[in-house]
Amino acid sequence: MKPVIFMASGQGSQYFQMGVDLYNENEYFYEKINTVGLIIENRFGISIVDIIYDDKRDGSEIFSDPILSSLGIYIIEYALVSTLEKYGVQPTKIIASSLGIFISSVISRCLDSSQALDTIYSMMSLLNRRCDEGCMIIVLADPTMYYRSSMLKEKSVLASRDDGLSFAISLQLCDLMDVENYLNDDLLPQKRSGEK
């Protein structure tokens, strides 16, 4: 039998209406979402289920508040793992990235769900209080572009790179327009002469 690997994603994977079809069609998933949602509401005063499944928001709207998006990621991953386990799907291995480490720790029984929720809420509250708003951009270009650009080095930090293919930068939100304009000017194909 092939191994089953669960992958728990982190910040950047969130969007409004996450798992909405499963929420509407699978009773067990629906129950888990609402159970954890009630715990979050009682503990932190946040109606996370109403926020994720707000009919006025769709998947294209930015879901950027660190507290809400982190609790949203956790509740979806928790309900999904619980649902898979209910149907007999057990992971052989778990891979986690960023915030996904919390759900992988809960699945591995290294951390209980209450501890995970409290830690996520505390960390993201601290982030909200102490950090400026920021964002990340994935640039589909050779990472040497970052090193050659004084503008990118001044206004961003190299977050990751895939040699020859792409790189990710982290920057303050106030610098986003300047960096996007710079990248668009540098990466968009030059117009042929005579083209308007």
Question: What does the model show?
Answer:
The chain is of the alpha+beta class. It is 51% helix and 14% strand. It has nine helices and five strands; from the N terminus they run βααααβααβααββα. It has helices at residues 20-25, 27-44, 48-52, 66-86, 100-107, 113-130, 144-148, 150-155, 176-187; strands at 5-8, 93-96, 134-139, 157-162, 166-172. It is globular, with a radius of gyration of 20 Å. The chain starts with a strand and ends in a 9-residue tail after the last helix. Residues 190-196 have low confidence and may be disordered.
Please report the distance between the alpha carbons of the first and last residues: 59 Å
* Computed Rg: 20 Å
Give the oligomer, counting copies of the same chain as homo and different chains as hetero.
Answer: single chain
Structural class: alpha+beta
The averaged pLDDT comes out at 88
**How would you characterize the largest beta sheet?**
3 strands, antiparallel
Strand content: 5-15%
Helix-strand sequence? EHHHHEHHEHHEEH
Number of helices: 9
Inertia-based shape: globular
Number of beta-strand segments: 5
